[in-house]
Amino acid sequence: MIKDMLKLFITNRKALLGVIILSIFIFIAVFAPLIAPYHPKQSSDQEGKFQLRAAPSSKHLLGTSHAGYDIFSRLIYGTRLSLMVGIVTGVITTFIALTLGLLGGYYGGVIDDIISFINNIFLVIPSLPLIIVIASYITIRGVWPIIFVLSFTGWAWGTRVIRSQVLTVREREFVKVAEVLGEKPLVIVFREILPNIISLVMATFFTSTIAAVIGEATLEFIGLGNISAVTWGTMLYWAQNNAALLYNAWWWFLPPGLFIGLLGTSFALMNFAIDEISNPKIRKR
Amino acid sequence: MSDKLLEVQNLIAGYQTKMGRVLAVNDVSFELKKGELIGIAGESGCGKSTLAYSIMNLLEDNGAIFSGEINFSGDNLVDFSAKEIKQFRWQKMSMVFQSAMNALNPVMKISEQLIDALKAHQKGISEKEARKRAEEMLELVDIQKDRLDAYPHQLSGGMKQRVMIAMAMILNPDLVIMDEPTTALDVVVQRNIIEKIEDLRSEFNFSIIFITHDLSLLVEISDKLAIMYAGKILEIGPAAKIYSNPLHPYTKGLMNSFPPLTGEIEEMSGIEGKPPDLLNPPAGCPFYPRCEKRMEICKTEMPEFKELENEHQVKCYLYQGSDNLE
C-alpha cells in the first residue's frame, strides 16, 4: 500500500514536482544549521556588527534586517517552524475532521445531530476574526497556541466534506453486505468505508496544511503570534513593521511570501495524484 | 429429523411510515425442504424482497416483523436477539444481492473481501487457510485462482456475481437467499450463473430462495414456485404444475405475459390495472379489482389456501366452490 502510494506520487508528473518541492523544504528544515550561513539571531561576526538594512551582497545573500540579522538565514530557519506548524496543524485538523466525519456519517442519529450542530456553528462563524479573537485572548506566546487556534478553527470544512462522503458510501451495497456478513461497526468504518474516501482525507490534509501555513503567517503578520520566533510569518511582520515596501527591500518581504506560495503549490500538485490512490480503477499499471 | 429446513408461518412484516403501516408481507406461509429451490415471483412492489429481508432479519430501520414465525431447522428466528442473529447470518443462511456491481468494495481486492467474510465468523482461522478456502471457492464458481488478487473493476459483471455467490457459500450455509441475482446481467451470462447455481446446489445440497420477477426463468429452475401479489402468496406448488396448469387468475395472467419457448405463439396479454395500495389493503382478495373472474365474495373476503392436488395450493374462490356450496 505505502509502496504503491510512493509509486503513484512518482509516476504522476505534477505530483512528482510537488513531492520534489516539499522534499526540498523538508531538507531545508532538517539541515537548516548547515545551509544557513549564520544563526537567525546573530547580528555580528568576527568582523564586527552586521550592517543594518543591507542590500543583498555576497556576504548576506538576501541582505540584513533592521536589527542586522541575516535575512537568508532567517528564511532558512523559518522553514522549520512554518513547516512544522503547517503539518502538525494539518494532521490535527484532518484527524478531528476524519473522526467526527466518520462518526457522524456512519452512525447518524443523535451523534450526527450533535456533531453537525457544532459543525454548522463553526462553518457560520467567519474563521479569520475567530482566529484573531482567540489568539488575542491567549496570553502564552509560542507556537503551540497558534497550532491550537488554527486546529480549533480549521476542522469544520473537512468534517463537513468527509461526513457527506461517508453518508454516500455508507449507503453503498458493499457496506450493507459487510453488515450482513456480521462485521463489527469499527471494521466497517475503517476497512470498508475509509479506503473509499482516503483521497478525500488526503485532500483535506493538504488543504488544511496549506491553510495552516497561511493562517500562521497571517496571525504573525498582524502581530498575534510570537514575534520573537523565526518563521516566514514573523519575517513578513518585521518587514512590514520596518517599511520594507517603502524602501523597496524586496529581498526582505518577497522570499518568505514566495516560500509560502511554493509550499502551497507543492501540496496542490500532490493533490493531483491522490485520486489515483483510492481508486484502483484509474491507477496506471 | 425431518428434512424440513425452513418454515415460514403467517408472517406479517412491513414498514412503519408516517401514514401508517405498509404490510409488504401479509400472512405469508411456506415451507422449504433441505436442498430445495423455491422460486418467489411477483411484480415490483409485491413484497418479495421484503420477505427475503425478513427471513434474513435485515429490514431497514422502519421495517419490522409484526407477527408470525420463521422456523429455521427448529429455531424461531423472530425470537433471536440481534447478537444471535448476527452469528447465525451468513453462517447458516446467506444472501446474494441484486447488484453485484455494487456489492463488492471497489477499493479492496477480491481475496480480502472473501477472507473478511470468512474471518468475521471463524475467528481462529489463519491467513493461509482462509486464502486457501477463498481460492477453492473461486474455483467452484469457475474463476481462476490467479484472479484472487484482482480488484472488482477488473472482473466482468458475471464474474462479480459469481464472486458474490462464492462469498455467500464460503461458510457452507444451509440456505442461500438470492434476490434477483441475475437481473442486471444479459441473458447469456444469466444462463451461466443459473447453471452454476444448479451445479453447486446439487453438489452441496443447500436450499435456495430465489426471488425474481422473471417467471420464465423461475419455472425452469425451481422445484417449488410461489406467486406473490400485494404481500400475499396467491398460489404455491411444484413449479411444473404451476407452469402446466396455473390456477389463480393472476398466475394465468403472468403466464400469458411471456411467450412460450416452444409451440405456437399466441396472442400475449398483460394484466390490466395496477396493484393495490399496501397502506390500505383491500379487505378481500387484493387482486379483485384486476381480476377477470371476480365474484361478489372476493370483494369482502380473502379465501384460505385450498390444496388441489399434490401440494399445489391456491387462494381463490374459483376453486373453493365445491366446499362452500355444501
Automatic annotation (TrEMBL), chain A:
List membrane-spanning regions: 15-36, 81-108, 114-135, 142-158, 193-214, 251-274
Q: What is its main location?
A: membrane
The places in or outside the cell where this protein is found are: Cell membrane
Answer yes or no on keyword Manganese: no
Q: Which residues form a coiled coil?
A: none
> What are the record keywords, sorted?
Cell membrane, Membrane, Transmembrane, Transmembrane helix, Transport
The family database entries (InterPro entries) matched by this protein are listed as: BP-dependent_transpt_permease, MetI-like, MetI-like_sf, OppC_N
Has UniProt tagged this entry with the keyword Glycosyltransferase? no
Q: What is this protein called?
A: Peptide/nickel transport system permease protein
Q: Which organism encodes this protein? A: Halanaerobium saccharolyticum
Q: Taxonomic lineage of this organism?
A: Bacteria, Bacillati, Bacillota, Clostridia, Halanaerobiales
Automatic annotation (TrEMBL), chain B:
Q: Which Pfam families match?
A: ABC_tran, oligo_HPY
Specify the domain of life of the species encoding this protein. Answer: Bacteria
Family the entry assigns: Belongs to the ABC transporter superfamily.
Domain ABC transporter, residue spans: 6-255
Q: Which CDD domains does the annotation name?
A: ABC_NikE_OppD_transporters (cd03257)
The biological process GO terms on file are:
peptide transport
Protein keywords: ATP-binding, Nucleotide-binding, Transport
Which molecular-function annotation in GO is an example for this chain?
ATP binding
Protein name from the UniProt record: Peptide/nickel transport system ATP-binding protein
